[in-house]
Amino acid sequence: MMNNAVEIRDLHVVRGRHTVLEHLDLAIGGGVTGLLGPSGCGKSTLMRCLVGVQRIADGSVEVFGKPAGSAPLRDRVGYVTQAVSVYDDLTVAENLRFFARVLGAGRDHVDRAVASVDLEEYADDVVGRLSGGQRSRASLAVALLGEPELLVLDEPTVGLDPVLREELWTLFHQLADSGVAVFVSSHVMDEAERCDRLLLMREGRIIADGSPDDIKQRAGVDDVEAAFLAIVRQDRGDAS
Q1: How is the beta sheet containing 181-186 ordered, strand by strand?
Q2: Residue 77 has pLDDT above 50, yes or no
């Protein structure tokens, strides 16, 4: 894998009369990179840009040296949206076999994806009867079918209890340790501590970039939420 999975240059996205992303320059490499910020700050839009499904006004997004969303990236990028993206009336295995056919992935890919999210004993259960955390893991299994080198996760733990969130974050780090670049968004500040690298976003701009410890040290506080608030106040002062 190349040094950076993603290279973003001067990315500008406008929706109606509103700027959603403001001339972003960003590179994303290995490990677990977290994108944190309040709802409506542009996180999902940035995620959509990475997978090539967002119209952009200016700039470029390259993934592994190719334009985001281009055909050669089809099985190299996995994407999990906020909404569970599996069929409730099919079993876990049936869902995965269906999406495997779409991707041209073999049965061995299905078995590995089910095992990687620890759903083997639920493979024959109908998704609609699973818990929220199990359904989230089923969606993640679909994203892993092509054995992606970049995994884009849009608020994958929203609505889950702390135990399930802990399990998913453990899985994200296992994937990163295996060589997958994991890019995950959240508006839950305590999840920031789980990231190798942290991007704090406000109003379509990245206002801080570094390890959680770096960002806390920069703000002179002991937790990321306090750091975010301090950096926002500083950002407002700089912008005025």
Answers
A1: 77-80, 150-154, 181-186, 32-36, 197-202, 205-210
A2: yes
